[in-house]
Amino acid sequence: MKHFLIDATPYAADNLTGVGRILHELTGRLFDIDRENEYHIFGFAPEIWPPARLPANFAYRRIRRWTPLGPLAMEAARRAYVRLRTARVPTDLLYCPLDMTPVRNGRTRVVCTLHDVARLSPQFLSPTPPTIRASARTNLRYRLARQADMIHTVSEFSAEQIAARLRIDRAKIRVISPGAGPLFTPAAPDPAVLARYGAAAGRYFLFVGQMGRQKNEEGLVNAFFTARQDNALAEDIKLFFVGDSSAMRDSTRQSLQSDAGRRRVRVLGRVGDADLLHLYRGAIAMTLPSFYEGFGLPVVEAMACGTPSIVADAGSLPEVSGGAGLVVAAGDQRALAEALARLAGDAELRARLHANAVERAELFTFDRMTRRLHELFCEMTDG
Questions:
Q1: Is the pLDDT of residue 214 over 80?
Q2: Euclidean distance between CA atoms 147 and 112, whole angstroms
Q3: CB within 8 Å of 138: residues ≥ 6 apart
């Protein structure tokens, strides 16, 4: 029997990030596939799953932040707990889904997830320069990742970037992609849900993600307006943005204040999965024209709903979308405008891409991710 330690400190039920979602899905599926090895999960949340849901070989421990340390509180608490736990309990493996915590006891292997090295890329754009603290934290994250026994990442693109930019042996990097949650399935959207957002099925494009930086939402807005000015899109077709817009560029906000912007473009902010499901299902396409992506989870969620995508030929996006959408040159607003018009006006193309999307989504599931991570954990601790 092996003893696995899982760092669940990135999980927060009231602010569920992509990493938090992966942790929730991973742990829940581990319950079903491994009743032999011991798992000790720790985090800041009161719980990840109700205690009654945990099998006998799983335990969860809530730890406290060291609040007097301010921004360092989470880092200090995580490190202290790992050091204490691995000193008291023989631990075969520590899994860190976000920030790597070093263990130097000669026994415990460490697997660290690193989604990308975007902050080392010139395509990582930010409306304001990073603070000294943010730069230091980024450098620390990458430096610690080099100390892991194995790095798990989410795409072949990210694996190659990590190996090259951090100078890590490619053999120490394993690609295991996440998937869409079980809620995301193909079906007709609920008109009542769409109506709450001023949407109608098949009459809008959708962007999902954290705006700003490398996402290129400004290029998408400009391309959308170009297609409208060319009369290539019907008058009633709209563009919806879902996600955190706090980092949206001022120039983009200003363009949305125009008459055309107010009528045809809406920034919805954060949307819960129950409604996001129907926004995906009802969209002409999910649009993600980023300059850099380490994975692109919204593309996978859209595919699971049968919705095609329009993506840039940057980062992992062509790798993930496969034949389930259109690919345009990153930063080419004219090509993006033409792709919007093409997909909106070609029902046969949409039907073909819908079928491709549903088929391709089967390659990206949390069940598959969990099985492969479990195999990695066992592989790392055999012998």
A1: yes
A2: 9
A3: 119, 130
Residue 188 and residue 157: Cα distance in Å, rounded? Answer: 33
**Cα separation values, 165 from 99, 117, 168, 170, Å:** 18, 8, 8, 11
Of 367, 342, 365, which Cα lies nearest the Cα of 352?
342
pLDDT of residue 130: 63
Under a CB-based contact definition with an 8 Å cutoff, are residues 310 and 285 in contact?
yes
Q: Which burial class, exposed, middle or buried, applies to 347 when counting CB atoms under 10 A from its CB (0-12, 13-18, 19+)?
A: exposed
Residue found under tokens 């969860």 = 60
- Phi, psi angles (nearest 5°) of residue 330: -60, 130
Q: Is the pLDDT at 57 greater than 60, yes or no?
A: yes
- Topology at the third CATH level for domain 191-361: Rossmann fold (3.40.50)
DSSP assignment letter at 239 = E
Q: Which residues, 6 or more positions from 10, have their beta carbon under 8 angstroms from its beta carbon?
A: 17, 19, 20, 23, 43, 97, 98, 99
324 to each of 193, 266, 311, how far by Cα in Å?
Answer: 25, 25, 10
Global pTM reads: 0.90
Q: Residues spanned by CATH 3.40.50.2000 within the chain?
A: 3-179+365-381, 191-361
Six-digit token string for 35: 């009743």
| 363 Cβ contact partners less than 8 Å away, ≥ 6 residues apart | 177
Helix, strand, coil percentages (3-state) for the chain, rounded to 5, are 45, 15, 40
In this structure, whether the domain defined by 3-179+365-381 belongs to CATH 3.40.50.2000 is answered with: yes
- The 3-state DSSP class for residue 107 equals coil
Digit-coded pLDDT (tens) for 245-260: 887 888 888 878 876 6
b/e map of 308-342 (b: 16 or more CB within 10 Å)?
bbbbbebbbbbebbbebbbbbebebbebbbbbbbb
Q: How many CA atoms lie within 13 A of 79 on its CB side?
A: 12
- Amino acid, single-letter form, for residue 53: R
* Tokens describing residue 140: 């620390």
* Interatomic CA distance for residues 180 and 365, integer angstroms: 6
Q: Are 305 and 278 in contact (CB under 8 A)?
A: no
